[in-house]
């Protein structure tokens, strides 16, 4: 997926604004761990990687660190991409993604009053459901395509 998240932009905003932006988008706009830099002391202070929502380990942890400071994007291009495979963990979790995102959104609303509003949560939940559905459709299409490719190679 090209130009996903914050690629193409060079921005510096408060961590709270960055968390609000990722929640309203319904997805992790920051990227994979290989594309994100944070201070070790801040990561340690928030308890390292937070796995209470397995599909959102990266996003949840980034949010906890961002709520301690600011966000800066180095832009202007994405630093990495990812491939989709039918054996990928996120393919198997496609049905759980939106409910995990909703749990994360509620946690931010309750644990960090003033960072996001109930309207932000509703929008983020809607976007997460829409993106989960679109991912399922892509996985279904690619799964059929990959199955045909594997069958013709045999």
Provide a short characterization of the protein structure:
The protein is mainly α and about 150 residues long. The chain is built from six helices and two strands, in the order βαααβααα.
| Uncertain stretches of 5 or more adjacent residues | none
In round numbers, the mean pLDDT is: 81
Instruction: Output the strand order for the largest sheet.
Output: 1-2
Quickly count the helices: 6
| Helical percentage | 40-55%
Can you describe this structure?
This protein is mainly α and 154 residues long. It has one domain. Helices cover 53% and strands 4% of the residues. The protein has six helices and two strands, in the order E-H-H-H-E-H-H-H. The protein has helices at residues 15-25, 40-45, 57-66, 89-92, 97-111, 118-153, and strands at residues 12-14, 70-72. A two-stranded antiparallel ribbon has the order 1-2. The model has no long low-confidence stretch (mean pLDDT 81).
Question: What is the secondary structure topology, with strand pairs?
Answer:
Blueprint lengths: L11 E3 H11 L14 H6 L11 H10 L3 E3 L16 H4 L4 H15 L6 H36 L1
Antiparallel strand pairs: 1-2
């Amino acid at each position: 997926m090209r130009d996903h998240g914050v690629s193409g932009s060079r921005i510096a905003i408060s961590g709270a604004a960055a968390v609000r932006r990722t929640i309203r988008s319904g997805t992790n706009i920051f990227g994979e761990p290989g594309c994100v830099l944070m201070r070790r002391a801040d990561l340690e202070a928030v308890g390292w990687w937070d796995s209470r929502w397995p599909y959102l380990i990266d996003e949840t942890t980034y949010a906890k660190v961002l709520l301690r400071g600011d966000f800066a994007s180095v832009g202007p291009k994405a630093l990495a991409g990812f491939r989709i495979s039918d054996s990928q963990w996120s393919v198997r979790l496609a049905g759980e993604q939106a409910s995990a995102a909703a749990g994360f959104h509620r946690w931010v609303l309750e644990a960090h009053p003033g960072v996001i509003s109930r309207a932000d949560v509703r929008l983020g939940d809607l976007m997460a459901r829409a993106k989960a559905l679109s991912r399922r459709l892509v996985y279904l299409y690619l799964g059929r395509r990959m199955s045909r490719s594997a069958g013709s190679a045999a």
